[in-house]
Amino acid sequence: QVQLVESGGGLVQPGGSLRLSCVASGSTFSRYAVGWFRQAPGKEREFVASHRLGNTFYRDSLKGRFTISRDNAKNTVYLQMNSLKPEDTAVYFCAADSRIIVSSMREASAWDYWGQGTQVTVSS
C-alpha cells in the first residue's frame, strides 16, 4: 500500500509558476507509475501528467507549460507548472499505481492510490 501527500499549492498570479510535490510512503515507490490529476469546481477530475518506467505523458493542452519529474531516492514526484492561467485553478491530486497500463493512465478510475489534493488558485 502507498500513501501520498501533496504540497506546494497556493495562490499565484497569472503567468506565475508553482511546483507541486507529492511524497509517497513505502520502499517500492520506484516500481510505481505516478500521475497528477486536477479537478475544478463542478468538473470531473482530469488527467494532467504521468510518469511510468522513465516515460512521461501529458495532457495535450498542457504540454510545454507543465513538467512531471520524480526523485525515487526521496520517494517524491513533482509537477512544475509555468505560465499559469486562471483556467489552471483546481485541486491537484497525486496518484500512484503499480500495475497501470499506458492506455489507461488518462483515466482517474484506473489509479489505485490517491493523495488528499492541494489547491492551486491562479488569480490576480
Characterize this entry briefly:
The protein is globular and about 40 Å long.
How many helices?
0
Unreliable parts: none
Strand content: over 45%
* Amount of helix: under 10%
Average of the residue pLDDT scores: 95
Distance between the termini: 40 Å
Find the structural class using helix and strand composition: mainly beta
Radius of gyration: 13 Å
Write the layout of secondary structure elements.
Elements (H helix, E strand, L loop, with lengths): L3 E4 L2 E3 L5 E7 L8 E7 L6 E7 L2 E4 L7 E6 L4 E6 L8 E8 L15 E2 L3 E5 L2
Parallel strand pairs: 2-11
Antiparallel strand pairs: 1-3, 3-8, 4-5, 4-9, 5-6, 7-8, 9-10, 9-11
Describe this structure in words.
The protein is mainly β and 124 residues long. The protein is 0% helix and 48% strand. The chain contains no helices and eleven strands. The chain has strands at 4-7, 10-12, 18-24, 33-39, 46-52, 55-58, 66-71, 76-81, 90-97, 113-114, 118-122. Strands 2, 4, 5, 6, 9, 10 and 11 form a seven-stranded mixed sheet that branches. Strand 5 (46-52) and strand 6 form a beta hairpin. The protein is globular and about 40 Å long. It starts with a strand and ends with a strand. The model has no long low-confidence stretch (mean pLDDT 95).
